[in-house]
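ERR on first pass: missing label on line 2. Operator R.T. fixed the label and resubmitted. Corrected input:
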Amino acid sequence: MIESIRKAVIEMDDEKAIELVSIALKEKTDPVDILEKGLISGMQEVATLFARKEYYVPEVLLCSEAFYAGFDIIKPLIGKSSQQSKTKVVLGVIEGDIHDIGKNIVKVMMEAGGYEVIDLGRDVPIAKFIEVVETEKPDILAISSLMTTTMVHMANIISELEQRKLRDTVKVIVGGAPVNEEFAARIKADGYSPDAPSAVKLVEKIIGG
Amino acid sequence: MVCADHGALLMNMTLTEVAEDGERIARVLRYCYDLYDYDMVLVFTDPYVEAQALGCPVTLDPYPTLRGPASNHSVDRTEQIIKAADILKSEIPVPVFVSIKGPFTLAAFLGGVEHYLKATMKSEAEATHLLQEALHHQLAYLRKLLSLSVDIMIGDPLASSSVISPGAFCKYALPGLQTMVDMAKAKNVRVGVHICGEVAPILKHLDDLSADILSIEDIDVETETIRMGGVGTDTILNGDVERIRSEVKNALGNRPIILSTACDVPPQTDPASIKTMVSTARENDPDHGVQE
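pass 2 clean. output:
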């Protein structure tokens, strides 16, 4: 059953995911196993397929739907300790930019990777990023921009963190089509990721030290 | 590719003030042409001209933003683009290209990008219906542009292999692109196709369109079609003189090419950087110019 749930995610079948998760729960399957060995394992395979260019953005969007369709059913059933993430990630698309498909894919892959994700959404003002770093104390601040016109604000967030003495409390990673390694280094980000699967690996690397 | 947003910034105007007025579009693009002395002009204000004409909510300042899928509130700026193209064609001695969206990208704008991308996998009828609506509009718009004998640059960014599979490209994007290229070529104007991001898996198909120009990020590939690009948008925005000069020289090693930025010049780009790009090209390629 759990393997079928995993396959439903990989095969982009949200209705199947709902049906199979419901059956598995009726059969008293441990919700944590459904989550980790079914849904999360499925999304990890999706990340691999995306990295190998066997899946593209539409496929990943549909896999994400299947993942969340199952996840929403079991989420209330899983104790907080079982969901306890290794790391807290705050994620958002920079002010002036509403292109959030890439950010949404990063979100689902981070959640599938077991991280606690606080999604600020898109068109997020600099002040909001700063406020959430202050209040939520995340390990990672992940900022996305799809436009050359908005990517410049990433540097402003980092300098604002410095001014408020918050820079050492959080690792900042950046991504999005116009962003590259060189740009990330120039604005003193802690890392750059070209795509969603790499973003998860980057967080693993940063947190792993 | 210097666009009207950069010109607007240089002339202390908002993009809204410029993009809704054909004479102003022409004025800012003429200003940039006089300032930089490049070899072709592109009439482009933002990616959402046609989407807005078909009812998508769009705001232009501080950045052009598509606010949602098509609804009932259309604002048609295509006539202003046509007016600008007409003015520039009569004033400027170099080729005037007009940017027009590829039908796939326009269909995605009309349906909402995320929704449309999913529809290409789960609801072929809906995806095809929007695509046909987009193509129908674009062919009518293209006919008007061709009546001015301007050159055409078809931009289809969402058809990139950074977004959709080569299979989806062939099924949904390629036929409409081919129709538009064929229509433009039948009128004996130059026609270019611009797709940003990854194009390697579809490069052969793009080459087989028989367009005159392929504007792509990585020009270090072999194509029958003349490639356009060579300087990264990050380079022109943030690069120092040495980095810009180095990319220009590398790009000129791939001749014949049309030297350009890989995508639009970011509006806040320092004019000195664009001048460096143009002057480096002149020093290293005295026989410049768009050839027949």
